Amino acid sequence: KDGLIIQKPVTVHSRARCRKDMLARRKGRHTGPGKRKGTANARMPVKVLWMRRMRILRRLLSRYRASGKINKHLYRQLYVQAKGNQFKNKRVLIEHIHKKKAEQARTKELTQLAEGARAKKKEARQRREERQQKKREDRINSILQAENAIVAQQKAQPSP
C-alpha cells in the first residue's frame, strides 16, 4: 500500500511424508499392479539383471581359479556355460562345481585302482611265465640226465 515490498516467509517444504512413504515402499507397500506405470522391463531392465548375474558368476569363477579350487580347463568350461545361461544363480554354480570336482576325484581314484590292478596282473603273469620257464628247464634237464645215464650205462656194458 505504501509502495513497500514486504518479504514473505519461506513456505515449508517438508520431506517427512515422502520419507514415510519411502519406508512403506521398502516394506513392499503401494507397489501393486495399480501403482505401476511402466512395463516390468522398464522398471527393472532384464539386461541389467543379466549383467549383474554374469558379473557375480564370473567374479566367483575367477576367484576360484586364482585360489586353485578349479583348474583353467574347468574354469573355461564353466565360463562358457555361465554365458550360455546354464546357471540361475551363484548357489547353483557352486553346487555344480562341487559335483564336477567330486566326479573328477572319483574318476581319478578309479583310474588309479585300474592301474594298480593292471600292474598286479602284469607281475603275476611275469611270475607265472618265469615258473613255467623254470619247469620247462627242469624237465629238459631231467630228460638230459636220463639220456646221459642211459648213454653211460650203454658205454659201461660192453657190446657182445
Task: Set down the secondary structure blueprint.
Elements: H1 16-26, H2 40-43, H3 46-67, H4 72-83, H5 90-156
Helix pairs in contact: 3-4
Short description:
The chain is mainly α and about 160 residues long. It has 5 helices and no strands.
Strands, count: 0
Helix content, binned percent: over 70%
Main beta-sheet annotation: none
Rg is 45 Å
Low-confidence stretches: none
Overall shape: rod-shaped
- Topology pattern, helix = H, strand = E: HHHHH
**Helical stretch count?**
5
Derived from helix and strand composition plus strand pairing, the structural class reads mainly alpha
* Overall mean pLDDT: 94
Share of residues in strands: under 5%
Ends distance: 179 Å
What labels describe this entry?
160 residues, mainly alpha, 5 helices, rod-shaped
Overview of this structure, please?
The chain has 160 residues and is an all-alpha fold. The protein is built from five helices and no strands. The protein has helices spanning 16-26, 40-43, 46-67, 72-83, 90-156. α3 runs antiparallel to α4 (72-83). The longest helix has 67 residues, at 90-156. The chain is rod-shaped. The termini are far apart. The mean pLDDT is 94.
